[in-house]
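Example record

One chain of 129 residues, shown exactly as stored in the release files.
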Amino acid sequence: MRSLLHLPDQAIRLGPIMLCALVLWSSASCEAMNRNATPTSAVEHPEKSSVPRFIPHELLVKFKNGISRERIEFILTHNRIDILSEIQFGRLYHVRVMDDRSVESAITQLTSYQEIEYAEPNHRYEIQK
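Predicted structure tokens for this chain:
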């Protein structure tokens, strides 16, 4: 019975030693594998997609706190921008530029209003395989 009572103490003392040994072994294994690996310069990288980095004519526009719905609608309508969806009630909007202006031009126009916290392109994100 006495040896069973001391087992947790021994395990507590051996735990950090075993963890260090595992880390060292893992590190040595990784180094050995890296020596046999193909150099990164020789790895073929897939060609970058010709898909635009953001969705044409779409923006995310965030308004500062306390801006009325009427003022938000006025700013967007005045700048020929249509609301596609409201992401954060009364603050963040997914919008579409209704003419042929560039996304950058629309952002410049919108950020001139003190009521707007930021405006940015609606970026595309892809999962790499």
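Notes: Residues 2-35 form the longest helix (34 residues).
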